[in-house]
Amino acid sequence: MMDQTTLKEILVAIKPEQIQRYLKIKGWTRSQTFDRGELWTHAQRDEEILLPLDQTVADYILRMAEVVEVLRKIEHRSFVEVLESLQDVSVDSYRIRWVNDDIQTGRIPLTAGVQLFESVKSMLIAVALSAVSPRRYHSGSRPEIVEDYLRKIQLAIPEHGSYVVSVKSPVVPSPEKMDFFYKTEAFGRRVLIMLDQALTQLKNVSEEVFKSETLPQLDESISKGISFNLCKAIADVLDEGAQYIEAQVSWSPISPRNSGQPVVFERKLAPAIRKIGEFLLDHAIVEDFNLIGLVTKLSRDPKDEMGRVSIWAFVDNHPVTVTVDHVCAENYSLFTKAHDDRLLVQCVGDLVLEKKHYTLKRLRDVVVLEPSQ
Fold it and tell me: CA-CA distance, 248 to 211, in Å (whole number)?
Protein backbone atom coordinates (compact mmCIF):
# COMPACT_ATOMS: atom_id res chain seq x y z
CA MET A 1 0.00 0.00 0.00
CA MET A 2 1.43 3.38 -1.01
CA ASP A 3 1.39 6.02 1.77
CA GLN A 4 0.35 9.63 1.14
CA THR A 5 3.87 11.00 1.35
CA THR A 6 5.17 8.56 -1.27
CA LEU A 7 2.13 9.27 -3.45
CA LYS A 8 2.78 13.02 -3.39
CA GLU A 9 6.47 12.51 -4.15
CA ILE A 10 5.61 10.40 -7.21
CA LEU A 11 3.00 12.85 -8.47
CA VAL A 12 5.35 15.81 -8.24
CA ALA A 13 8.14 13.83 -9.91
CA ILE A 14 6.08 12.85 -12.98
CA LYS A 15 6.94 15.16 -15.84
CA PRO A 16 4.30 16.51 -18.25
CA GLU A 17 6.09 14.87 -21.22
CA GLN A 18 5.55 11.45 -19.60
CA ILE A 19 1.82 12.11 -19.54
CA GLN A 20 1.93 13.40 -23.12
CA ARG A 21 3.55 10.18 -24.32
CA TYR A 22 1.03 8.06 -22.45
CA LEU A 23 -1.98 10.00 -23.74
CA LYS A 24 -0.69 9.84 -27.31
CA ILE A 25 -0.27 6.06 -27.06
CA LYS A 26 -3.80 5.70 -25.68
CA GLY A 27 -5.36 7.65 -28.53
CA TRP A 28 -5.82 11.05 -26.89
CA THR A 29 -5.37 14.24 -28.91
CA ARG A 30 -4.12 17.65 -27.79
CA SER A 31 -7.02 19.99 -28.64
CA GLN A 32 -5.97 23.25 -26.94
CA THR A 33 -2.81 24.74 -25.50
CA PHE A 34 -2.79 27.31 -22.71
CA ASP A 35 -0.07 29.28 -20.98
CA ARG A 36 0.53 26.63 -18.34
CA GLY A 37 -1.48 23.69 -19.54
CA GLU A 38 -3.04 21.64 -22.34
CA LEU A 39 -6.48 20.23 -22.96
CA TRP A 40 -6.59 16.64 -24.25
CA THR A 41 -9.65 14.90 -25.67
CA HIS A 42 -10.46 11.43 -26.95
CA ALA A 43 -12.61 10.64 -29.97
CA GLN A 44 -14.35 7.80 -28.15
CA ARG A 45 -14.65 9.40 -24.71
CA ASP A 46 -16.64 12.27 -23.25
CA GLU A 47 -14.03 13.05 -20.62
CA GLU A 48 -11.38 15.75 -21.00
CA ILE A 49 -7.96 15.95 -19.42
CA LEU A 50 -6.42 19.25 -18.38
CA LEU A 51 -2.68 18.57 -18.25
CA PRO A 52 -0.53 21.01 -16.22
CA LEU A 53 2.77 21.94 -17.86
CA ASP A 54 4.38 24.01 -15.11
CA GLN A 55 5.67 21.85 -12.24
CA THR A 56 6.31 24.97 -10.12
CA VAL A 57 2.65 25.97 -9.71
CA ALA A 58 1.21 25.49 -6.23
CA ASP A 59 -1.54 23.06 -7.24
CA TYR A 60 0.57 20.89 -9.58
CA ILE A 61 0.13 17.79 -7.41
CA LEU A 62 -3.64 18.28 -7.24
CA ARG A 63 -3.96 18.77 -11.01
CA MET A 64 -1.78 15.75 -11.70
CA ALA A 65 -3.89 13.66 -9.32
CA GLU A 66 -6.98 14.73 -11.29
CA VAL A 67 -5.33 13.49 -14.51
CA VAL A 68 -4.62 10.12 -12.92
CA GLU A 69 -8.17 9.93 -11.55
CA VAL A 70 -9.71 10.49 -15.02
CA LEU A 71 -7.51 7.76 -16.49
CA ARG A 72 -8.34 5.45 -13.57
CA LYS A 73 -12.08 5.69 -14.24
CA ILE A 74 -11.72 5.23 -17.99
CA GLU A 75 -9.29 2.32 -17.81
CA HIS A 76 -11.02 0.62 -14.85
CA ARG A 77 -7.77 0.27 -12.94
CA SER A 78 -6.56 1.36 -9.53
CA PHE A 79 -5.01 4.77 -8.95
CA VAL A 80 -1.64 3.17 -8.14
CA GLU A 81 -1.71 1.00 -11.29
CA VAL A 82 -2.26 4.02 -13.51
CA LEU A 83 0.45 5.92 -11.65
CA GLU A 84 2.91 3.10 -12.25
CA SER A 85 2.02 3.04 -15.96
CA LEU A 86 2.68 6.76 -16.23
CA GLN A 87 6.04 6.36 -14.49
CA ASP A 88 7.01 3.49 -16.77
CA VAL A 89 5.67 4.85 -20.06
CA SER A 90 9.18 5.34 -21.48
CA VAL A 91 10.96 2.42 -19.83
CA ASP A 92 11.23 -1.32 -20.13
CA SER A 93 11.31 -3.13 -16.81
CA TYR A 94 13.28 -6.09 -15.50
CA ARG A 95 12.02 -7.67 -12.28
CA ILE A 96 13.73 -10.43 -10.36
CA ARG A 97 11.97 -12.00 -7.38
CA TRP A 98 13.95 -13.75 -4.63
CA VAL A 99 11.86 -16.37 -2.84
CA ASN A 100 12.37 -18.26 0.41
CA ASP A 101 9.16 -19.27 2.17
CA ASP A 102 10.92 -19.27 5.55
CA ILE A 103 11.61 -15.53 5.28
CA GLN A 104 8.94 -12.89 5.94
CA THR A 105 7.52 -11.34 2.77
CA GLY A 106 9.25 -8.11 1.83
CA ARG A 107 12.46 -9.01 3.65
CA ILE A 108 15.70 -10.73 2.74
CA PRO A 109 18.81 -11.74 4.72
CA LEU A 110 21.55 -9.11 4.47
CA THR A 111 24.10 -11.30 2.68
CA ALA A 112 21.45 -12.59 0.27
CA GLY A 113 20.26 -9.03 -0.41
CA VAL A 114 23.75 -7.79 -1.18
CA GLN A 115 24.31 -10.75 -3.51
CA LEU A 116 20.95 -10.19 -5.22
CA PHE A 117 21.75 -6.58 -6.11
CA GLU A 118 25.29 -7.52 -7.21
CA SER A 119 23.94 -10.30 -9.41
CA VAL A 120 21.30 -8.08 -11.00
CA LYS A 121 24.07 -5.65 -11.93
CA SER A 122 26.26 -8.50 -13.25
CA MET A 123 23.39 -9.94 -15.32
CA LEU A 124 22.73 -6.59 -17.01
CA ILE A 125 26.42 -5.99 -17.70
CA ALA A 126 26.77 -9.51 -19.15
CA VAL A 127 23.83 -9.23 -21.53
CA ALA A 128 24.72 -5.65 -22.50
CA LEU A 129 28.16 -6.92 -23.56
CA SER A 130 26.54 -9.84 -25.38
CA ALA A 131 24.23 -7.39 -27.17
CA VAL A 132 27.39 -5.77 -28.55
CA SER A 133 29.28 -9.01 -29.19
CA PRO A 134 28.10 -12.43 -27.95
CA ARG A 135 30.97 -14.26 -26.22
CA ARG A 136 31.54 -17.21 -23.93
CA TYR A 137 33.21 -14.95 -21.35
CA HIS A 138 33.33 -11.18 -20.97
CA SER A 139 36.36 -9.49 -19.46
CA GLY A 140 38.45 -6.36 -19.79
CA SER A 141 37.26 -2.83 -20.55
CA ARG A 142 33.66 -2.23 -21.58
CA PRO A 143 32.55 -0.34 -24.73
CA GLU A 144 31.31 3.20 -24.16
CA ILE A 145 27.80 2.26 -25.34
CA VAL A 146 27.62 -0.25 -22.46
CA GLU A 147 29.00 2.22 -19.92
CA ASP A 148 26.49 4.82 -21.09
CA TYR A 149 23.64 2.34 -20.75
CA LEU A 150 24.69 1.40 -17.19
CA ARG A 151 24.61 5.08 -16.23
CA LYS A 152 21.05 5.44 -17.53
CA ILE A 153 19.28 2.40 -16.05
CA GLN A 154 17.69 2.89 -12.63
CA LEU A 155 16.63 0.84 -9.65
CA ALA A 156 13.04 1.25 -8.50
CA ILE A 157 11.82 0.91 -4.93
CA PRO A 158 11.93 -2.82 -3.98
CA GLU A 159 8.50 -4.40 -4.30
CA HIS A 160 6.63 -6.81 -2.04
CA GLY A 161 6.12 -10.38 -3.17
CA SER A 162 8.88 -12.20 -1.28
CA TYR A 163 11.61 -9.67 -2.26
CA VAL A 164 11.54 -8.05 -5.68
CA VAL A 165 14.22 -5.92 -7.33
CA SER A 166 12.96 -3.85 -10.25
CA VAL A 167 15.21 -2.21 -12.84
CA LYS A 168 13.98 0.47 -15.22
CA SER A 169 15.65 0.67 -18.62
CA PRO A 170 14.84 3.80 -20.68
CA VAL A 171 13.88 3.31 -24.30
CA VAL A 172 13.12 6.88 -25.40
CA PRO A 173 15.38 9.75 -24.29
CA SER A 174 13.12 12.67 -25.26
CA PRO A 175 9.77 13.34 -26.99
CA GLU A 176 11.38 14.71 -30.16
CA LYS A 177 13.16 11.37 -30.69
CA MET A 178 10.04 9.21 -30.43
CA ASP A 179 9.68 8.83 -34.20
CA PHE A 180 13.28 7.69 -34.45
CA PHE A 181 12.54 4.92 -31.94
CA TYR A 182 10.10 3.29 -34.33
CA LYS A 183 12.81 3.07 -37.00
CA THR A 184 15.58 1.54 -34.93
CA GLU A 185 15.78 -0.33 -31.64
CA ALA A 186 17.35 1.68 -28.82
CA PHE A 187 20.33 -0.06 -27.25
CA GLY A 188 18.49 -0.45 -23.95
CA ARG A 189 15.69 -2.32 -25.71
CA ARG A 190 18.26 -4.57 -27.45
CA VAL A 191 19.79 -5.38 -24.06
CA LEU A 192 16.51 -6.48 -22.51
CA ILE A 193 15.54 -8.48 -25.60
CA MET A 194 18.88 -10.26 -25.23
CA LEU A 195 18.28 -10.75 -21.50
CA ASP A 196 14.81 -12.15 -22.10
CA GLN A 197 16.01 -14.77 -24.59
CA ALA A 198 19.17 -15.54 -22.60
CA LEU A 199 17.19 -16.32 -19.42
CA THR A 200 14.79 -18.60 -21.31
CA GLN A 201 17.64 -20.37 -23.09
CA LEU A 202 19.63 -20.83 -19.87
CA LYS A 203 16.59 -22.25 -18.09
CA ASN A 204 16.10 -24.83 -20.86
CA VAL A 205 19.78 -25.78 -21.09
CA SER A 206 20.28 -26.01 -17.32
CA GLU A 207 17.25 -28.29 -16.96
CA GLU A 208 18.69 -30.49 -19.71
CA VAL A 209 22.07 -30.63 -17.94
CA PHE A 210 20.36 -31.33 -14.58
CA LYS A 211 18.51 -34.32 -16.04
CA SER A 212 21.23 -35.80 -18.26
CA GLU A 213 24.41 -34.52 -16.53
CA THR A 214 25.88 -33.92 -20.00
CA LEU A 215 26.49 -30.63 -21.77
CA PRO A 216 24.71 -29.96 -25.08
CA GLN A 217 26.09 -27.91 -27.94
CA LEU A 218 26.25 -24.32 -26.67
CA ASP A 219 27.00 -22.25 -29.78
CA GLU A 220 23.35 -21.25 -30.19
CA SER A 221 23.13 -20.44 -26.49
CA ILE A 222 26.09 -18.07 -26.74
CA SER A 223 24.48 -16.26 -29.66
CA LYS A 224 21.37 -15.81 -27.49
CA GLY A 225 23.32 -14.14 -24.70
CA ILE A 226 24.47 -16.94 -22.40
CA SER A 227 27.97 -16.37 -21.03
CA PHE A 228 30.04 -17.44 -18.06
CA ASN A 229 29.26 -14.08 -16.47
CA LEU A 230 25.49 -14.55 -16.72
CA CYS A 231 25.71 -18.12 -15.40
CA LYS A 232 27.78 -17.03 -12.40
CA ALA A 233 25.43 -14.17 -11.54
CA ILE A 234 22.37 -16.44 -11.44
CA ALA A 235 24.08 -19.33 -9.63
CA ASP A 236 25.45 -16.94 -6.99
CA VAL A 237 21.92 -15.76 -6.13
CA LEU A 238 20.57 -19.30 -5.92
CA ASP A 239 23.41 -20.37 -3.63
CA GLU A 240 22.72 -17.49 -1.24
CA GLY A 241 19.58 -18.89 0.36
CA ALA A 242 16.94 -18.61 -2.38
CA GLN A 243 14.52 -21.46 -2.89
CA TYR A 244 14.05 -20.08 -6.36
CA ILE A 245 14.28 -16.82 -8.28
CA GLU A 246 11.78 -15.57 -10.81
CA ALA A 247 12.78 -13.15 -13.55
CA GLN A 248 10.60 -11.30 -16.05
CA VAL A 249 10.99 -8.54 -18.61
CA SER A 250 8.08 -6.21 -19.42
CA TRP A 251 7.99 -3.67 -22.20
CA SER A 252 7.25 0.03 -22.50
CA PRO A 253 3.84 0.79 -24.04
CA ILE A 254 5.62 3.11 -26.48
CA SER A 255 6.72 -0.01 -28.36
CA PRO A 256 4.96 -3.01 -26.83
CA ARG A 257 6.11 -6.59 -27.27
CA ASN A 258 4.55 -9.82 -26.12
CA SER A 259 5.68 -10.49 -22.56
CA GLY A 260 6.28 -14.16 -21.91
CA GLN A 261 5.88 -16.05 -18.68
CA PRO A 262 8.33 -15.38 -15.84
CA VAL A 263 11.47 -17.53 -16.02
CA VAL A 264 11.92 -19.52 -12.80
CA PHE A 265 15.27 -20.92 -11.64
CA GLU A 266 15.05 -23.36 -8.74
CA ARG A 267 17.97 -23.77 -6.35
CA LYS A 268 18.55 -27.33 -7.56
CA LEU A 269 19.62 -25.92 -10.94
CA ALA A 270 22.57 -23.99 -9.46
CA PRO A 271 25.14 -26.81 -9.96
CA ALA A 272 24.02 -27.30 -13.57
CA ILE A 273 24.26 -23.56 -14.24
CA ARG A 274 27.77 -23.46 -12.74
CA LYS A 275 28.75 -26.45 -14.88
CA ILE A 276 27.61 -24.59 -18.00
CA GLY A 277 29.49 -21.48 -16.90
CA GLU A 278 32.70 -23.36 -16.15
CA PHE A 279 32.58 -25.00 -19.57
CA LEU A 280 32.18 -21.63 -21.25
CA LEU A 281 35.01 -20.15 -19.20
CA ASP A 282 37.34 -23.08 -19.85
CA HIS A 283 37.16 -22.52 -23.60
CA ALA A 284 37.12 -18.72 -23.57
CA ILE A 285 39.34 -16.28 -25.43
CA VAL A 286 39.39 -12.60 -24.51
CA GLU A 287 40.84 -10.70 -27.44
CA ASP A 288 43.00 -7.59 -26.97
CA PHE A 289 43.26 -8.09 -23.22
CA ASN A 290 45.27 -5.38 -21.46
CA LEU A 291 47.38 -7.18 -18.84
CA ILE A 292 49.21 -5.34 -16.03
CA GLY A 293 51.18 -7.29 -13.45
CA LEU A 294 54.48 -8.37 -11.93
CA VAL A 295 56.89 -10.75 -13.67
CA THR A 296 57.40 -13.71 -11.32
CA LYS A 297 59.33 -16.13 -13.52
CA LEU A 298 61.59 -16.03 -16.58
CA SER A 299 62.59 -19.10 -18.54
CA ARG A 300 64.70 -19.32 -21.70
CA ASP A 301 67.29 -21.78 -22.93
CA PRO A 302 70.54 -19.97 -23.90
CA LYS A 303 70.35 -21.62 -27.31
CA ASP A 304 66.78 -20.40 -27.97
CA GLU A 305 65.63 -17.01 -29.17
CA MET A 306 62.18 -17.42 -27.66
CA GLY A 307 61.44 -17.51 -23.93
CA ARG A 308 58.61 -18.02 -21.46
CA VAL A 309 57.38 -15.53 -18.86
CA SER A 310 54.99 -15.83 -15.91
CA ILE A 311 53.10 -12.73 -14.79
CA TRP A 312 51.14 -12.31 -11.57
CA ALA A 313 48.10 -10.13 -12.27
CA PHE A 314 44.44 -9.55 -11.50
CA VAL A 315 41.82 -10.90 -13.91
CA ASP A 316 38.25 -9.97 -13.03
CA ASN A 317 39.43 -8.88 -9.58
CA HIS A 318 41.05 -12.26 -8.87
CA PRO A 319 44.83 -12.79 -8.56
CA VAL A 320 46.08 -15.27 -11.17
CA THR A 321 49.30 -16.29 -12.87
CA VAL A 322 49.36 -15.76 -16.63
CA THR A 323 51.91 -17.58 -18.82
CA VAL A 324 53.30 -15.97 -21.96
CA ASP A 325 55.06 -18.36 -24.37
CA HIS A 326 57.20 -17.67 -27.45
CA VAL A 327 58.45 -14.32 -26.18
CA CYS A 328 60.91 -12.77 -28.64
CA ALA A 329 64.33 -11.48 -27.55
CA GLU A 330 63.30 -7.82 -27.56
CA ASN A 331 60.23 -8.38 -25.38
CA TYR A 332 62.09 -10.87 -23.18
CA SER A 333 64.63 -8.17 -22.31
CA LEU A 334 61.78 -5.86 -21.28
CA PHE A 335 60.27 -8.55 -19.07
CA THR A 336 63.71 -9.18 -17.58
CA LYS A 337 64.12 -5.49 -16.72
CA ALA A 338 60.69 -5.42 -15.08
CA HIS A 339 61.56 -8.56 -13.08
CA ASP A 340 65.00 -7.37 -11.93
CA ASP A 341 63.81 -3.85 -11.05
CA ARG A 342 60.55 -5.11 -9.51
CA LEU A 343 58.46 -2.94 -11.77
CA LEU A 344 55.00 -3.50 -13.20
CA VAL A 345 54.78 -4.52 -16.84
CA GLN A 346 51.92 -3.84 -19.23
CA CYS A 347 51.19 -5.81 -22.40
CA VAL A 348 48.35 -6.71 -24.74
CA GLY A 349 47.34 -10.08 -26.13
CA ASP A 350 44.57 -12.67 -26.36
CA LEU A 351 43.85 -14.10 -22.91
CA VAL A 352 43.03 -17.81 -23.03
CA LEU A 353 41.80 -19.99 -20.16
CA GLU A 354 42.24 -23.73 -20.61
CA LYS A 355 41.89 -26.20 -17.76
CA LYS A 356 42.04 -23.39 -15.21
CA HIS A 357 45.34 -22.08 -16.59
CA TYR A 358 45.70 -18.64 -18.14
CA THR A 359 47.93 -17.96 -21.14
CA LEU A 360 48.44 -14.79 -23.16
CA LYS A 361 48.81 -15.29 -26.91
CA ARG A 362 49.64 -12.92 -29.77
CA LEU A 363 51.75 -10.79 -27.40
CA ARG A 364 52.32 -7.14 -28.33
CA ASP A 365 52.81 -3.65 -26.91
CA VAL A 366 55.06 -4.62 -23.99
CA VAL A 367 55.86 -1.65 -21.72
CA VAL A 368 57.76 -1.52 -18.43
CA LEU A 369 55.89 0.88 -16.14
CA GLU A 370 58.11 3.24 -14.22
CA PRO A 371 57.03 4.17 -10.67
CA SER A 372 55.64 7.50 -11.89
CA GLN A 373 53.32 5.64 -14.28
Answer: 24
